[in-house]
TrEMBL record:
Signal peptide: none annotated. Gene3D superfamilies: Medium-chain alcohol dehydrogenases, catalytic domain (3.90.180.10), NAD(P)-binding Rossmann-like Domain (3.40.50.720). One of its GO terms (molecular function) is oxidoreductase activity, acting on NAD(P)H. Residues 34-400 form the Enoyl reductase (ER) domain. This is Enoyl reductase (ER) domain-containing protein.
């Protein structure tokens, strides 16, 4: 760039900031096939502040599966560019006149409603209802606080609204004791109820494990072997190898829990939700074969399933008319809803967030591990591709630092500010075409359980375009061409396959 061009660019950047405009990542349905849905704007006006809202200057945002799903399956976006994003952390710079819970200068984290552009997370300034954000304690960095948003709020809504557990049981005093207990080796003679989490190393799984233990449940979950130690450190009692044969997994869960799991939360998709359903209904024949008896009261209460990523598919029954004579209990499948419980429901959202404030302050809750995507807002599109194609190791949340976003003039007109090969762009659209919202969990399962040709094609396309010491830098190593090879975590990046554990139960 010439000196004149540089000077012009610097002046343009200064002027933009003075005019109360800021940088934001928007998405819209592309006008033409092959175009990126994402665009980085440098001149988005600051959003208007409502009486019950706060204006937040965001320093870090975090990436969610929902962010790519909305764009790929065209829900929550339209023809007009809209600011996307759910999770972030920063500082309050202005408060509406009705706001009591917060003041200017408070550090906060949020799970944005993102129904309108002003509330989307992927921008430097956004507005949020004061009843829907949490305080960031002084010991927590914004980088870590940004990971809390959707994962922690989903876990809270699932447990305390969808399943109807009592928030009063999440007492911070009790939590401190529970946490010590969670870190201590299990005594083995516990009669606390079981809670099954399919996908324990996903971000929602991480927070579910922590909250379930703080509520006094015994947790059984599935995860890749490389994450077993991690999920155990959060409080999981029994961890199953997610790469084992599904029928073996169901049997292992029955064995570990005496066929007495009455609550299950699935974070993966319809097929694994169906496995949870199978566990919850219990099995008369398995009990007979294994000489196991369960208190009959436990069987009269229906099992409760919360399928977060798709309704149970292909539920197996033992007879052709769909009845199931082997089942010992009924199963209720419960739908989670943020709009009828959390957003615009201050009586619940404030009570939940006040509890979380206390648990975070007392360090009874540990935020998920993080990985920084390069380029701030301009790196988000790329990070979402990594999430979509199962290239992010479990228990890690991708975060972007907004100050890393390149200024005007340094982007060279690339879509979303990140250079992508034509092949990758085409692949993204090809996959989205013709799919419905319900297909999203199926796609996730296909990519995470048995990485397909699609995944290999993307891996080839993405080679050689990544930066150092970022999620992108590890991409080439993490791409596993062999469908059978489970992914590895950052500290354990390996080029060779890790052999599957002999037994599904490893702890
Ligand atoms: N309905 C709602 O309101 C709502 C709210 C939040 C999330 N969700 C949905 O729930 C899903 C999870 O979200 P998230 O943010 O928690 O995801 P995430 O952090 O991206 O989860 C990724 C992890 O899931 C694990 N996983 C994938 N397939 C698995 C399988 N077959 N068995 C066991 N574990 C498996 C993997 O763990 P390993 O590395 O151990 O293999 C992977 O690392 C997404 O589809 C999201 O859209 C829905």
């Amino acid at each position: 760039m010439t000196v004149e061009a540089q000077q012009f660019t610097a002046t343009a950047n200064d002027l933009a900031r003075k005019r109360s405009v800021h940088r934001a990542l928007t998405a819209k349905i592309p006008a033409e096939k092959g175009q990126s849905a994402w665009e980085l704007s440098h001149s988005r006006p600051h959003p208007n502040l409502g009486d019950n809202q706060v204006l937040i200057e965001t320093s870090y945002v975090a990436l969610n599966p929902f962010d790519w799903q909305g764009v790929a399956f065209k829900y929550g976006i339209g023809e007009e560019a809209k600011v996307m994003g759910r999770d972030g952390a920063g500082v309050i710079v202005d408060v509406g006149k009705e706001v009591k819970r917060f003041k200017q200068g408070d550090r906060v984290w949020f799970c944005a409603n993102s129904s309108a552009s002003g509330t989307g997370a992927f921008q430097e300034y956004s507005v949020h209802s004061a009843s829907e954000i949490g305080h960031t304690p002084s010991h927590l960095t914004d980088e870590k606080a940004a990971t809390l948003g959707t994962g922690l709020i989903t876990a809270g809504v699932a447990l305390f609204r969808t399943l109807g557990l009592s928030l009063d049981d999440l007492d911070p005093q009790r939590a401190a004791k529970q946490q010590q207990r969670a870190r201590a080796p299990r005594a083995g003679a516990d009669d606390a109820p079981w809670l099954l989490i399919w996908g324990g190393a996903g971000i929602t799984g991480v927070y579910l494990i922590e909250l379930a233990r703080l509520l006094g449940y015994r947790v059984i979950c599935s995860a890749s072997p490389v994450n077993h130690e991690y999920v155990r450190s959060l409080g999981a009692d029994v961890v199953l190898d997610r790469w084992s044969d599904p029928a073996d997994l169901v049997k292992s869960i029955r064995k570990a829990t005496n066929d007495n799991v009455r609550i299950a939360i699935d974070n993966v998709g319809g097929k694994t939700a169906a496995l949870c359903h199978q566990v919850l209904r219990g099995s008369a024949s398995w009990r007979k074969e294994n000489d196991v008896s369960v208190d009959s009261d436990d069987d009269t209460t229906p099992g409760q399933l919360v399928p977060l990523a798709g309704s149970p598919k292909e539920i197996t029954t033992s007879s052709s008319d769909g009845s199931d004579s082997d089942a010992v209990r009924k199963v209720d499948s419960l739908r989670i809803s943020f709009s009828t419980t959390f957003y615009n429901h201050p009586e619940f959202s404030e009570a939940l967030l006040d509890k979380f404030d206390k648990l975070l302050e007392s360090e009874s809750l540990t935020p998920a591990r993080i990985r920084l995507v390069p380029g701030g807002l301009s790196g988000i599109e790329r990070g979402l591709e990594d999430l979509r194609h199962g290239r992010v190791p479990g228990g890690y949340k991708l975060v972007a630092r907004l100050s890393d976003t390149p200024d005007l003039g340094s982007l060279s007109g690339q879509a979303g500010g990140t250079k992508r090969s034509r092949e990758e762009i085409e692949l993204g659209n090809e996959e989205a075409d013709g799919e419905t919202q319900d297909d999203k969990s199926a796609e996730r399962e296909e990519q995470t359980q048995a990485p397909s040709k699609k995944r290999t094609k993307t891996a080839d396309a993405s080679n050689g375009t990544v930066e150092a010491e970022t999620v992108g830098s590890k991409r080439a190593k993490e791409e596993q061409p062999d469908d059978k090879i489970p992914p590895t975590a950052e500290a354990n990046v390996q080029t060779t396959a890790q052999p599957p554990a002999r037994s599904a139960i490893v702890a």
